[in-house]
Amino acid sequence: MSRSQDLIRRKGEAVANGVGARSITVSRAENAELWDADGRRFIDLAVGIAVNNTGHRHPKVMAAVAEQAELFTHTCFQVAQYEGYVALAERLNALTPGDFAKKTMLATTGAEAVENAVKMARAYTGRSGVIAFSGGFHGRTLMGMALTGKTAPYKKDFGAMPAEIYHAPFPHEYHGLTTEDAMADLQRLFRSSIQADRVAAIIVEPVQGEGGFYVAPTPFLQALRALCDQHGIVLIADEVQAGIGRTGTLFAFEHAGVAADITCMAKGLAGGFPVSAVTGRAEIADAASPGGLGGTYAGNPLAVAAAHAVLDVIEEEGLCARATEIGATIKSRLDALSQTPAGAGIGEVRGLGAMMAIELVSDRSARTPDAALCNEIVAEAEARGLIILACGVFGNVVRLLPPLTIQHEMLDEALDILEAAITTVMDRRQAQAA
C-alpha cells in the first residue's frame, strides 16, 4: 500500500464522513505545483479553491508570517489590539470599491464574513429579510447554508433553515435567463413573498463560484444597485471566491462600475492563512453595538501579516493584469478545442480573468447538462497529474483557478494535459458507443 493509499484509508476511519475529500494527498507544494505523499507531481489549477492566488508558499508571504511569529501569534484583538489588524482595515477601506467612508472587521472564514455582513445590515436597517440568488454559495454555517442556493450537499439532511431568507433567479444568459428576467423576478418576489421595505440586504456573488462560474452581467449589478438605493436595502458583495485579483481587478465588482455597501472577502486574501474581512459603509459597519462583532481568532496576527504581504505582491508583481492574461490564454485554447470533435461536449467556455470554466453538455442545441462527462474529465486530468475542480448546480462545470503567479510554460503544460484528458474521455465514449 502506498503512503497516499494509507493516508486515504486512515482518513476513512478517523475523519467524519461529511468531510468529503478528493483522492489527492499532499506532502509539499510550491507556486503552481503540488507533490503527493508518494512524491508524485501535480499542476494545481484549484489552489485550495481560489485561496493561493499568489501561489503556494510565496516567499514574501512566508517571510512576513515568519517575522510575525517571532513577535506574537495570538492575543485576541478584543483583548490586546495590534497594529497589523488596524493597518489591514485601513488598506481594505481604501481598496474596496466605493467612494465613501468605510470601516472593516476581520474574521476567520468566508462564512463568518457573510454572517457578520448580514448582522450589520440587519442592525443598520432594523429589518430582517435577506435575498440571495439561485446557485449562489455563501458558506456552510446555518445562515450561510440558508443563503446558499444549492441544496445538495450543502443543505441536505440539515433540517429547517433560518427564517426570512428568500431566493431569486440569477441571470444565466447561456440558459436563456436575462438580466431583465431576473429583475422582473425580484419584483415578483416583492409582490408575493416579502415587501421591499422589510428587506435588510441583497447578497450577490459578482461571479458565482460553486454555482458554475456564471458572471453577473454588468447591467444586472447596476440594476441591483439602483433597486437597493430605491428601497433602502443594503447591497452585499460576496467576493470570497472572486476577489483579491482573481478576475483581473482586485475586486470583481469593479468590472460593473458600481459599489456594494458591504464587501465580503476571504480565500485569496492571505495566501492560505485563515482570515476574512467585511468592509462596508462606515455607518452600516458601526450599526452593531460594541461586542456584537468579532471572534476569538478573528484577525489572527499571522494571517494578518500574510494578508499584507499578499496585497503587496499583487501590486508589485502586477497580478491583476496577469489574471487577465491567464484568462485570455485559457479561453483561446478551450474555444479552439470546442470547435473540434474532441470538444463536442463543451457547451460554453466562460469566466472573468483567471476564473474560468467549461460547461459540459450532452446536447449543444438543448444545452443538456452532462455531469458524468465532467466527472470523467476531472478524473482523467487527475490521473495525468492535473488538479481541476467540478462545480455547478448540475455538477457539469469544470472550473479552472490557476495561481496568478503560474509561469507561462506551466500554464501551457496544464492546458495540454486538460486537452489530452478531454480528448481521451471523448474517444473512450465514442469507442463504448460503437
Automatic annotation (TrEMBL):
Its cofactor is pyridoxal 5'-phosphate. The gene is gabT. Belongs to the class-III pyridoxal-phosphate-dependent aminotransferase family. It is an enzyme of class 2 (transferase). The keyword Ion transport does not apply. It comes from the Bacteria. CDD domains: OAT_like. This is 4-aminobutyrate--2-oxoglutarate transaminase. One of its GO terms (molecular function) is 4-aminobutyrate:2-oxoglutarate transaminase activity. Keywords: Aminotransferase, Pyridoxal phosphate, Transferase. InterPro entries: 4NH2But_aminotransferase_bac (IPR004632), Aminotrans_3 (IPR005814), Aminotrans_3_PPA_site (IPR049704), Class-III_PLP-dep_AT (IPR050103), PyrdxlP-dep_Trfase (IPR015424), PyrdxlP-dep_Trfase_major (IPR015421), PyrdxlP-dep_Trfase_small (IPR015422). Its EC number is 2.6.1.19. NCBIfam families: GABAtrnsam.
